[in-house]
């Protein structure tokens, strides 16, 4: 039953057939309701539109506060400068590397653990589940974690970013409940054909669980792509920063657009005016582009988790 | 764990990679006469299970030795995740003892000597801590009162939409901010609240004076809550929308026949129908009450607005990591965590007693 939910996006909920005619009051309510929802969408989208508008506007219009919905004084100087900045690309590449490595580790640990936990006859199953679930409610806190990572000598290495968040208990429970509903006949058949647990897991269960695996992959990938705090805490070398830290330092004024070699004074003021919007735009671009395609996986993943609850 | 090795070896010896025996006769459930299961108690469950190895077992009465022999491959799946949890989740919990011990950088991670409640007394007498504490409670309460109910409202509004395309578009758009990094959210906030930003454009267009929002403590809570609503309201509807689909249509039909209007149907059928979801999410929210948006606040705050923007987590970040008072900050963090756990447990207990819905 859970398995079928996965293929069905949340929005595909059928509207209820109505035979009774709506009262005039209800009809006007529905009109207002639709109007309000459009307003909500506009408010949600506006900040993004504003980022794009600022990113392409010229400095004079930005500083005098005239840029809102559309770019004014079309201008791409800052794009040239940010995209010409070695550090930006280096940090961008770091983000890609961190995301790939961290997601791989996380998926390896989560799928195997979830699969083992989904075997109902595993002795000690309750204990192993409890060990994971308890960490949802009890965690060491910021400082002990910081001390631990430092003492392990992981500061200024990729490991400080990719290891500490390798298992998300939420994702683990989602996968576990998915595997629990995996048709046991298939596993039995594979076992009769002489497959070991390893063979069954890698050659039967995983290939048939692509939907949930893809969902978890996206959950992890997006969270690692967006993360900045681990780098903020443990990385001192700007060359190892992910791009979120590049942006954070711009926002915090640690580095300013003008520190990037820009050329003439004109282009420097231009850069100062919209370097943040340009960097934000470049940072969110991959997510925005992928978003329409990956959104339904996320929704189904959350629903799977909810079934467990 | 010393007993682990032996059965594993035994397991290899009996099935050396060869296909396991087929048929029930060879590997029937461990007979009553086999040496290991010595307990005559009644099995808790009567159901039998089939292992990936094809063995039919009664789960109730297997010893560890048998379990390891049978499932050793499965147990190897557990090793790395358990090591991970031990090192990165349980060791830091243990690390909290430095709240009661003096910690010196470079020496033991668990501190050097016991100092008792020294650091606890220290923060109890720390004016700045209580300041951050108050801010945390205020922000946490405001989040619960304002941010928590809005997804319910939006879900109910979406539920009244009949056009599937329109509904799906609204959902897709409203989920989008959820996928943004906190850094982007902070950037958006800075941009909109800038002196030449959109909000000030509106204010000046209406004849007001531009406000330096991020430098005025009185604005911080409004700004924080708005950004929180922007980022979470759409995504928060998913679980409610899922719960709404589980409500039986017959209830609505019956209500219509009884003459209930749409509003009465919402009040008497829809809301009670999603109540368990509301309660579970409320409990989870109460649990994160003390940890209010740490990363976002850290990005948004600056010393000018500490009087409203400094919360426990950012304060202990400054104390522990910027100023390096590890033990002191750990004591504060422990205090925060204890409050958090207490809140979850009591919220859970209360809701189980009153509404009958709970997390566990």
Keywords:
heterodimer; A: 309 residues; mainly alpha; B: 360 residues; two-stranded antiparallel sheet; 62% helix; globular; disordered N terminus
Overview of the molecule:
Chain A is 70% helix and 0% strand. Chain A contains 15 helices and no strands. Chain A has helices at 2-7, 24-55, 59-63, 77-83, 86-118, 125-137, 142-151, 159-162, 169-180, 184-192, 197-205, 210-226, 229-234, 243-251, 265-308. With 360 residues, chain B is mainly alpha-helical. Chain B is built from 17 helices and four strands. In chain B, helix 1 (5-14) runs antiparallel to helix 2 and helix 4 crosses helix 9. The two termini of chain B are 30 Å apart. The model of chain B is unreliable at 1-39 (pLDDT under 50). Chains A and B meet through helix 2, helix 5, helix 6, helix 7 and helix 10 of A and strand 1, helix 2, helix 5, helix 6 and helix 7 of B.
Task: Give a short overview.
The complex is a heterodimer of chains A (309) and B (360). By secondary structure, chain A is mainly α.
Helix and strand composition category of chain B: mainly alpha
Residue share in β-strands of chain A:
under 5%
Secondary structure: number of strands of chain B = 4
Strand content of chain B: under 5%
Low-confidence stretches of chain A: 1-12
The H-and-E topology of chain A, N to C, reads as HHHHHHHHHHHHHHH
**Helical residue percent of chain A?**
55-70%
Shape of chain A: globular
Main beta-sheet strand count, sense and barrel state of chain B: 2 strands, antiparallel
Query: Which value, in Å, is the CA radius of gyration of chain A?
Result: 25 Å
Order of the strands making up the biggest sheet of chain B:
1-2
Q: What radius of gyration of chain B results from the CA coordinates?
A: 29 Å
Q: How much is the average pLDDT of chain A?
A: 81
What is the distance, rounded to the nearest whole angstrom, between the alpha carbons of the first and last residues of chain B? Answer: 30 Å
């Amino acid at each position: 039953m859970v398995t079928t939910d996965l293929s069905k996006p949340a929005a595909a909920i059928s509207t209820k057939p109505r035979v009774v005619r709506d009262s005039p009051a209800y009809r006007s309510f529905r009109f207002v309701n639709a109007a309000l929802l459009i307003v909500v969408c506009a408010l949600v989208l506006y900040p993004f539109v504003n980022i794009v508008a600022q990113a392409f506007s010229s400095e004079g219009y930005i500083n005098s506060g005239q840029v809102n919905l559309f770019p004014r004084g079309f201008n791409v100087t800052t794009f040239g400068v940010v995209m010409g900045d070695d550090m930006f690309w280096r940090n961008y590449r770091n983000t890609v590397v961190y995301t790939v490595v961290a997601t791989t580790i996380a998926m390896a640990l989560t799928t195997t653990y979830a699969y083992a936990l989904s075997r109902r006859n595993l002795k000690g199953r309750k204990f192993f589940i409890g060990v994971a679930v308890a960490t949802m409610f009890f965690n060491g806190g910021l400082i002990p974690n910081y001390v631990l990572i430092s003492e392990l000598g992981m500061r200024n290495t990729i490991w400080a970013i990719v290891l500490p968040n390798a298992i998300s208990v939420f994702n683990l429970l989602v996968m576990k409940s998915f595997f629990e509903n995996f048709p046991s006949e298939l596993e039995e058949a594979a076992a009769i054909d002489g497959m070991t647990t390893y063979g069954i897991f890698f050659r039967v269960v995983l290939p048939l669980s692509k939907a949930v695996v893809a969902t978890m992959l996206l959950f992890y990938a997006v969270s690692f792509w967006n993360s900045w705090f681990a780098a903020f805490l443990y990385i001192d070398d700007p060359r190892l920063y992910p791009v979120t830290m590049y942006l954070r330092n711009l926002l915090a004024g640690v580095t300013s657009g003008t520190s990037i070699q820009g050329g003439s004074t004109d282009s420097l003021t231009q850069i100062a005016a919209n370097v943040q919007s340009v960097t934000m735009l470049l940072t969110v671009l991959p997510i925005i582009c992928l978003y329409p395609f990956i959104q339904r996986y996320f929704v189904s993943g959350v629903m799977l988790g909810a079934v467990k609850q | 764990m010393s007993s682990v090795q032996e059965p594993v070896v035994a397991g290899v010896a009996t099935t050396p990679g060869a296909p396991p025996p087929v048929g029930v006769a060879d590997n029937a459930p461990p007979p009553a006469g086999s040496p290991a299961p010595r307990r005559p108690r009644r099995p808790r469950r009567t159901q039998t299970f089939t292992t990936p190895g094809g063995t039919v077992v009664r789960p109730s009465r297997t010893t560890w030795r048998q379990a390891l022999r049978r499932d050793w491959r499965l147990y190897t799946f557990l090793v790395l995740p358990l090591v991970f949890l031990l090192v990165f989740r349980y060791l830091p919990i243990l690390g909290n003892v430095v709240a009661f011990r003096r910690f010196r950088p470079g020496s033991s991670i668990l501190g050097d000597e016991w100092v008792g409640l020294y650091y606890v007394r220290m923060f109890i007498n720390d004016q700045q801590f209580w300041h951050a504490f108050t801010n945390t409670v205020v922000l946490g309460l405001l989040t619960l009162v304002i941010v928590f109910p809005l997804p319910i409202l939006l879900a109910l509004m979406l539920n009244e939409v009949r056009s599937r395309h329109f509904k799906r578009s609204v959902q897709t758009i409203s989920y989008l901010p959820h996928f943004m990094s906190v850094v982007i959210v902070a950037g958006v906030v800075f941009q909109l609240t800038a002196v030449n930003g959109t909000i000030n454009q509106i204010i000046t267009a209406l004849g007001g004076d531009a406000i330096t929002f991020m430098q005025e403590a009185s604005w911080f809570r409004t700004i924080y809550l708005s950004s929180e609503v922007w980022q979470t309201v759409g995504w928060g509807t998913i679980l409610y929308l899922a719960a709404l689909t589980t409500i039986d249509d017959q209830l609505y039909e019956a209500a219509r026949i009884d003459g209930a209007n749409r509003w009465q149907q919402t009040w008497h059928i829809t809301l009670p129908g999603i109540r368990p979801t509301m309660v579970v999410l409320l409990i989870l929210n109460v649990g994160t009450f003390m940890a209010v948006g740490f990363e976002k606040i850290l990005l948004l705050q600056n010393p000018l607005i500490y009087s409203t923007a400094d919360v426990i987590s950012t304060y202990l970040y400054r104390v522990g990591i910027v100023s390096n008072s590890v033990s002191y900050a750990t004591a504060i963090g422990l205090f925060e965590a204890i409050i958090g756990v207490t809140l979850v447990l009591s919220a859970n207990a209360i809701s189980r007693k009153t509404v009958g819905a709970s997390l566990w």
